[in-house]
Amino acid sequence: MNARVTDYDVLRVFCGPRGGHGNTLAVVRDGTRMPERDDRQAFAAQLGFSETVFVDDPERGVIDIYTPGARLPFAGYPCVGTAWLLDVPELVTPAGVVGARLDGEFSWIEARPEWAPARTLRQYGSAAEVDALKVPSPGEWLYAWAWQDEAAGRVRARAFPGRGDGIEEDEATGAAALLLTHQLGRALNITQGAGSQILTAPQPEGWVEVGGRVFLEH
After folding, report:
1. Does the residue 216 lie in any domain?
2. 129-155 in b/e burial notation, b at 16+ Cβ within 10 A?
3. From which domain of life does this come (predicted)?
4. Does pTM top 0.90 for this prediction?
């Protein structure tokens, strides 16, 4: 591993209305200093965040995304956070070109549901049932959700990656929110984890927008 790569930004993505919660993300702005995939994977595992992003071209928005145990062609909250940090109109991922925009306090991306990794979307009868769930054994990637207010599009959700890589529950998950929005065909206001907020909206031709607040930790 290239020992020179020590500088990275830490963001919280999909924060709640008062700035709390959100899923923690590491962004290595100068990814070219660590070009090898094996080194990137090892560094992501060393940091231990749900995802770590390596920026290969900050002007064009070319990025490479890793969990502690795998490389991802696309992921939601890393794209939302990195687009906000770089202030670019689009991101180039292995899955495709992700549109990006800022709207007041919210950072938005536009992506396609087929880019998202497979998730089990399981509906429960109430938000209380979702709140009461225990972390399942490693296996399927489970997105547990229930309506808080169906008429208003308000959802309660929790995410259990089930990868066995030390991340038992994701605080906020953009790709799963994208898939749920595509499945339901409507805009959603999702409260996930301990209090993170994810906003979504279907777009023409199968695209979906996913947005939230981003804060720079350091």
Report:
1. no
2. ebeeeeeeeeeebbbbbbbbeeeebeb
3. Bacteria
4. yes
82 and 20 together in one domain = yes
**Tokens 């992501």 found at:** 44
DSSP state of 21: -
Q: Is the dihedral of CA 192, 119, 166, 145 positive or negative?
A: positive
- Residue whose C-alpha is closest to residue 178's, from 188, 163, 192: 188
pLDDT tens per residue, range 123-162: 999 999 999 999 988 888 999 999 999 999 999 999 998 8
> Which of 43, 69, 102 finishes a domain?
102
User: 43: domain CATH number?
Assistant: 3.10.310.10
pLDDT tens-digit map of 48-72: 999 999 999 999 999 999 999 999 9
Residue type for position 159? A
Both tokens of 191, joined, read 């409260």
Could you tell me which of 184, 182, 111 has the C-alpha nearest to residue 153? Answer: 184
- Measured CA to CA in angstroms, residue 140 lies from 22, 37, 121 at distances of 23, 25, 10
- Name the token pair of 65: 């995304």
